[in-house]
Each structure stands twice: as C-alpha cells, then as structure tokens.
Amino acid sequence: MCSQAYNKRLLVFIGSNYQENKARNNIKKDVWMIDFSTLVDIAVTLAVKRLKSINAKAEMEFAVEVEILGRVQHKNLLGLKGFYAGGEERLIVYDYMPNHSLLTHLHGQLAADCHLDWSRRISIAIGSAEGLAYLHHEVTPHIIHRDIKASNVLLDSNFEAKVADFGFAKLIPDGVTHMTTRVKGTLGYLAPEYAMWGKVSESCDVYSFGILLLEILSGKKPLEKLPGGIKRDIVQWATPFVQKDTYDHIADPRLKGRFDISQLKVVVNIAMACTDSNPENRPSMLEVVEWLKSGVGYRKKEMHMVKGQADETEDEDDFGDDDTDYYEMFDMKKHSSRIPPTQSRKTK
C-alpha cells in the first residue's frame, strides 16, 4: 500500500462494503480483484480473510494474528496489508497469492497438473524453513507458529513460499524454553509431546516442518487410512524406505523420475531428524536451513530419470483440519548444535 492514509481509506471501503463487493465480483472464497481507481490511482488484488462468526475464540485468534503479522516482516511470511474491525465485520487483508497454497498443488484441484517440479519443491522447502527460522530466532519475543501445514504455505507468482495463518501462534518470552497450552493444530502434523500433553516449544514447529518436507517430496498426505480403518502417518510410511536405502520410492510419482536422488536423500534425512520422537534430538530451524542450503540449495544438478519410478498414485482419504484439546506440564531443554544428518542414516 502506498501510504497510511491509503491503507485506512481502502480498508474502510472494503469493510463497509464487504457484502456488496463480494456479490458484485462473484466472490466465493473471500479473495477478489476490485478496481479501486475511484478511490486511488491503481487497481489492486487483495486476499481478505473474514471471520465467519464473532465469538470470544474467533476474536482472540483475530487479535493474535493481527498482532503477530504486525511484528514480522520477512520475504517468506505472508505480508499484512491491514485489518478492519467495525460493527460485526472482522477482516484481515493480505497480498493475494496467485498460485494459491501448497495444498492445492499437492492434493487439491491443481495436483494433476503437477506445476511443482523438483526445483520448485526444493525452493518451497527452503523458503518455508527460512520463514520459520525467522520466527523462532530473529523476532523478539520468539514466535511459535503451531499450525505448520501445506494449506498454510502460500505461493506467489514465482512459486516463492509464504508461511501464513498465525491465528494459533504463541509469543515466547526470552528465557522460556517451553509452554503448556491447549493444543491447536492439524492431525498428522502435531508433535507427539504436543498432541498428548500440550508441551509446546519451537521443536513442535520443527516436527511439523519435517512432516511438511516429506509431504513436499512424496506428494502423500500426512495421514492415510489403511484397510481395516488403521491410520498410518507419513513418517511410518517413509521409514522402511530409509532403512532399506530405497529413497526413490519416496519421491512423488508425478515427478516421473525427474529428481536428483542425492538431494532427495539429504532432504529425507533432514525430515527424519525433524520428526524424531524425542524433541531434544530435533534440530533447530536455523540448523535445518543450513542443512537444506548446504545439501541442496546452492547446488545446480542435472535432473535425471530414476528407473523404475512408478507413474501412478495411491488412493488416499482426505483428512481435514482437526483441532484437539489436551493439557499437561513439560520440561524442555535446549538442544545442542549437531552435525547435519548424512545419507548413511538408516533409522530414526
């Protein structure tokens, strides 16, 4: 936005004319393009998040997200344009992301088109990691996202990753290594100590990011339903391939073998380190960024076909966003610096 005055005038216009704008522009998902030339001298595309109902819980999440977004500024975090709180309307206005979310490309309406080639997937992984590292280590107080997942990684016109949705985020004061809180998040991404006992720390985001990495590489959902109603998570699915050194079976079949096997091994092993069942053994996001960049980020390699790569995908059930509520206490120690995982790692 051009100025503070521009912000204020535009937001009041959006908020006070929300329903009219929505109907006129055939808006179905709170994302639209409006010509504001009568108000300012440019047209702008915005994404608008609207509270469906006003209650204490929704108001709290609205306030948290606005506060967090007002504190952060990073190329891999979704930028806040402004917010509107007037009458019964609560709106948060963001930059519009024309390539939608990572979820849309992995499991949604654009999945069959396979716009995410190998280089884009690696770039998205690194960008998401850098955004998280910024939250954990550069912002004061530190911020735990608490809901890292594919639908909360948005993609701009260049497929650059933007971590979004800070409604569940927690501010962590200096010197505090953990908190105990009501659990919020999505099944399949939750760290065990968080899901069971509400033990939240930066390490919980690291675990969720490890799940996200495996999802980016494989195109599989975090949870799948097996015959008999048994659910298997993506770590359980990937572990046998790591143990047998058959990493090529982890790669998304939609890539049709066009990936770098050595890079795949590096990223899979980073994901396995992030999803270690013991939170003290997980790396920090700074370490993850370093490992990703040194392992794959700055090496230009020729893509090659991996023989025997399957060309079909498995049928999977769609698991929605399930919130859970648990309580407990936790004693977390900060992990010490470690060397990056190597390709020789076979077990967790």
Automatic annotation (TrEMBL):
A Pfam match: PK_Tyr_Ser-Thr
An MF annotation (GO) of this entry: protein serine/threonine kinase activity
Protein name in the entry: Protein kinase domain-containing protein
Record organism: Mikania micrantha
Keyword hit for Mitochondrion: no
Family annotation (PROSITE patterns): PROTEIN_KINASE_DOM, PROTEIN_KINASE_ST
Keywords: ATP-binding, Kinase, Nucleotide-binding, Serine/threonine-protein kinase, Transferase
Keyword Mitochondrion: no
InterPro entries, A to Z: Kinase-like_dom_sf, Prot_kinase_dom, Ser-Thr/Tyr_kinase_cat_dom, Ser/Thr_kinase_AS
Domain Protein kinase: 6-292
Source species, domain of life: Eukaryota
